[in-house]
Specification:
The chain is about 70% helix and about 0% strand. By secondary structure, it is mostly helical.
Length: about 110
């Protein structure tokens, strides 16, 4: 697999600042990993469990408990940070390669 092209130092600094702000806004700094470790076994099982069948009368209650458990374990915020970070990186690399894409799409203009 080919490596990604190197970004400019300015772009790297901006991405680093965005990532640090993102981690801080979701409170995933310092002892965030300890949040999952300190979550009770029941919360971890609920957060990672499979739902009952779609016709089960317990599905709505399970979904509510699952969402709460994922938040308490830090899963929800971790997924949101990962999604936003990926989008930041993708946008930066898209902008990085945009001039080359313009040349490829219209070589005669």
């Amino acid at each position: 697999m080919a490596d990604l092209p190197a970004l400019s130092e300015a772009a790297e600094r901006v991405l680093k600042l965005h990532f640090e702000a993102l981690l801080e806004s979701f409170r995933l700094t310092g002892d965030a990993a300890g949040r999952y470790a300190s979550a009770g076994d029941l919360n971890r099982r609920i957060a990672s469990g499979t739902p009952p069948g779609s016709t089960s009368r317990y599905l709505k209650g399970w979904l509510t408990a699952n969402q709460r458990a994922k938040q308490e374990c830090g899963i929800t915020s971790s997924v949101e940070v990962a999604t936003r970070r990926f989008n930041q990186l993708a946008a930066e690399y898209f902008n990085f390669g945009l001039p080359a894409l313009d040349m490829i799409s219209s070589p005669f203009s």
